[in-house]
UniProtKB/TrEMBL annotation:
Gene3D superfamilies: Aminopeptidase i, Domain 2, Zn peptidases. SUPFAM superfamilies: Aminopeptidase/glucanase lid domain (SSF101821), Zn-dependent exopeptidases (SSF53187). One of its GO terms (biological process) is proteolysis. It holds the Pfam family Peptidase_M18. The keyword Hydrolase applies. GO terms for molecular function: aminopeptidase activity; metallopeptidase activity; zinc ion binding. It is an enzyme of class 3 (hydrolase). GO terms for cellular component: cytoplasm. InterPro entries: Peptidase_M18 (IPR001948), Peptidase_M18_dom2 (IPR023358). This is M18 family aminopeptidase.
Amino acid sequence: MNTTEFNQQLLDFLAESPTPFHAVKAMSSRLEVKGFTRLLESEKWSLEAGKRYYFCRNDSSIIAFIYGAESLVEDGIRMVGAHTDSPCLKVKPQPEVTQQGYYQLGVETYGGVLLNPWFDRDLSLAGRVTYRTVTGKVTSSLLDFKRPIAVIPSLAIHLDREANQQRSINAQTDLPPVLMQVEGTDKPDFRGLLAEALTAQGVQDVESVLDYELSFYDTQKPALVGFKEEFIASARLDNLLSCFIGLQSILEADGKQSVLLVCNDHEEVGSRSACGAQGPMLDDFLTRLFTDPESRLRCIAQSMMISADNAHGIHPNYSSRHDGNHGPVLNQGPVIKSNANQSYATNSETSSVFRHWCEQSDVPVQSFVVRTDMACGSTIGPITASEVGVRTLDVGVPTFAMHSIRELAGVADAHALYRVLVTFAHSPASELDTPR
């Protein structure tokens, strides 16, 4: 797949995926087209070599697996990990607020949101809604309003003359989006509005909405931008971009080697959940894959995980925020992320073999280390390494404006990392042959 085709499919995937629930649905449909069979955790599994499988947990995390022809014990598994969630504004359980004749919804911040860019955007709402049917069954459906239904208006500079010098945001009082105007004390029932929206979407058996997990999102479509269209601009590049790269790489695998993709929810808030990287999802899968503990341990000793999560590109206006020798540039290749204090799981062996695969793929590679006087973020890499015991590497595509409502990446980098992951998926065990 060439760069142009890859990026167009990436833009389509980003537009389809306003929430982790929608991202998992989009990935599931692409996997099924390529012959992956869905597994249900409540059923007995009988996995066979040569077959392709996937399963979901909480509708927001997914594992896809190709059971290769080579021996799991002798050849291991090539693993790629990413996360489906992004910082955003989530609707509170009892959100209705009426002020000055305007109907608003209370929100809470999810993850480390960069708040300023959320003002004056055309916002929509999407997520999962759980409801009782007319027959008394409790079930869930995904919902996406798609059209702009809300906005968070800025306070005019005339009323805040210091806004450009020192405006701060109170997340409780400044962020509730405006949805509509209302008369007097009239306050529409939000759950009733959701029931109407589900019905309009084609769900015919809704009696009453019981609860929901809904997030606001920017309706501006993903796009190629720049004078020469060198950049991809979109919401949720962190980290749906890596999910898509991992997905495309496993779809290209030839089935000789065993290959696994895991995309976990809740990374942005610490990964501590049943479907997060610190939860048992991957471990549960490996338990069902192996009938005895020793075979599993021997397989893990021959395996490797590439944790893919975006890296900070060096910003031309803020270059002093980077270490002078470690400033990744957009469109100059994927980034190996290292940290002496294990915020990233990279070590000299895993970084070296990744450099080897980059050379084989004719892809340039860059390095990122945070300034010594600044705190370092983390990924699912160290968590997965500590939970499973697999050797792990942290890499990512360089981006600007991470955790903003709209982020920026280079058009060449996602495709470059995809090519490296395809090489990784086809690599023989001998390239990972280090004593353990």
